[in-house]
Amino acid sequence: MIKVSDDASKKIVAMMQEDGFDATKDYVRVGVKSGGCSGLSYELKFDKELGENDKVFEDNNVKIAVEKKSFLYLAGTILEFSGGLNGKGFVFNNPNASRTCGCGESFSL
After folding, report:
1. Which pTM was predicted?
2. Secondary structure of the chain as H, E, C letters
3. What is the rounded distance in angstroms from the CA atom of residue 56 to the CA atom of residue 85?
4. Bridge partners of residue 31, in order along the sequence
5. How much is the mean pLDDT over the chain?
6. What is the largest CA-CA distance in the chain?
7. What are the backbone angles phi and psi of residue 8, rounded to the nearest 5°?
8. What pLDDT does 99 receive?
9. CA–centroid distance for 52 within its chain
């Protein structure tokens, strides 16, 4: 399962509305791809459709779609949002990551 913090949920719902998506029926697609300074990097985008290999979760008023392949790397992750002067935006708190880069956008197992 992937969880969404209160702050991340508010930001996601607002951003979805700005981009023409409906948080009650559309999805936040979370994934992992090769790349980044630690070997794997996170992907986050909005999507209106599900693929046949997607796992779907709902937490804190956000529907999350994750391809099964990426889910192996993301199980137990909490998606947070850090704002303010030193904020980085969306942050993935991933218990599976053994190492993360300084920017927090890539990780390794």
Report:
1. 0.81
2. CCEECHHHHHHHHHHHHHCCCCCCCCEEEEEEEECCCCCEEEEEEEECCCCCCEEEEEECCEEEEEEHHHHHHHCCCEEEEECCCCCCEEEEECCCCCEECCCCCEEEC
3. 33
4. 43
5. 85
6. 41
7. -65, -40
8. 56
9. 19
Quick one: what percent of the chain has pLDDT higher than 70? 81
Token pair of 12 as six digits: 């996601």
Give me the residue label for tokens 């949002």. 81
- 14-56 pLDDT per residue, tens: 999 999 999 999 999 999 887 655 578 889 999 999 999 999 9
Structure-block tokens of residue 94: 């991933």
- Cross-strand partners of 17: none
Whose CA is closest to 90, among 105, 76, 72? 105
